[in-house]
Design brief:
- The chain has 181 residues and is mainly alpha-helical.
- The chain has a domain of 87 residues.
- Helices cover 82% and strands 0% of the residues.
- The protein is built from five helices and no strands.
- The radius of gyration is 55 Å and the shape is rod-shaped.
Length: 181
């Protein structure tokens, strides 16, 4: 949007001569991309020109009349409206950023919840496996103890039998003779 460089003083004077009121002139100038400050300055210059045409002394002694006050009020309202629109645009961009930020926070919270749930499931699985391994180790320990008892009972007999076999297979082995009485 290109903003005109000059103030539209002559346009305002021309519109006033055609019988347009100041509100209509302001709206027409805004549609021609003049900003509020340019319009306000142009109205002041147009008022000064019209007073100069009527006579310098008469224009200076009159002071402010109702039309000047009304023009000033309209210009102030126009400036306030323009600034308000700028503020609303900035505010809407802040609202959009806030909504995106809240959305991101909600996604992060969901991700953290999913991670916690996954961690809890993994933790339970690891504890289950450890418990299973512990049970298996107890079973193996019991089996080893049972084997130990069996070996303690069998080993002396087995050792005696092996020794006997060893002596029997030895070439210098003699069969014990029976003694007669």
């Amino acid at each position: 949007m290109k903003i005109p460089d000059m103030t539209p003083t002559d346009i305002i004077i021309q519109y006033r001569q055609q019988g347009y009121d100041d509100d209509s002139i302001i709206k027409a100038l805004q549609q021609q991309n003049y900003d509020s400050q340019q319009i306000f300055d142009a109205f002041n210059q147009a008022d000064l020109k019209s007073q100069a045409i009527g006579g310098p002394v008469q224009g200076m002694t009159q002071g402010f009349n109702n039309k000047d006050i009304q023009n000033t009020e309209q210009m102030i309202e126009s400036i306030i409206e323009e600034k308000w629109k700028e503020f609303q645009q900035k505010l809407s961009s802040i609202d959009q950023w806030k909504e995106e930020f809240e959305s991101t926070i909600m996604r992060l919270e969901e991700d953290v919840k999913h991670l916690k749930d996954n961690y809890d499931r993994l933790h339970q699985g690891v504890l289950g496996k450890i418990s299973e391994y512990d049970s298996n180790l107890k079973d193996v320990g019991s089996s080893v103890k049972a084997m130990d008892k069996v070996f303690k009972q069998i080993l002396p007999t087995l050792t005696d039998n092996v020794n006997k076999l060893s002596r029997m297979t030895n070439p210098g082995f003699r069969k014990p003779t029976q003694r007669t009485q």
